[in-house]
Amino acid sequence: MRKLVMFTIVFAMTLATSMNAQEKAKKLKLYGDVRFRTELDRDSKKNNGDMRADRDRIRYRFRFGFKYQLNENFDFGGRIRSGNPMNQQSPHVTFGKEFHSDAFSIDKVYINYKSGGFNMWVGKNSLPIWEPNELLWDGDVNPEGVAMAYKMKLGDNAKMRLSGGYFIVQNFYSADGKKQTFGQHANISMAQAKFCTKISDNKLTLAAGMLKAYKLPNKPDGNMTDVMNYTILPFNLQFSMKNGFALGADYIMNMEDYKGKVDANYEDQKTGMDFYAKYKINDKWSVKATYASIQKYAVIDYYAQDDWVRWGNSNMTRSSNFAGFGVALKYNIAKHFNTQLKFWNVKGIAKPTGASALETGTRIRWDFNIKF
Question: Can you list the domains of the chain with their CATH numbers?
Answer without folding.
Answer: 2-371 (2.40.160.10)
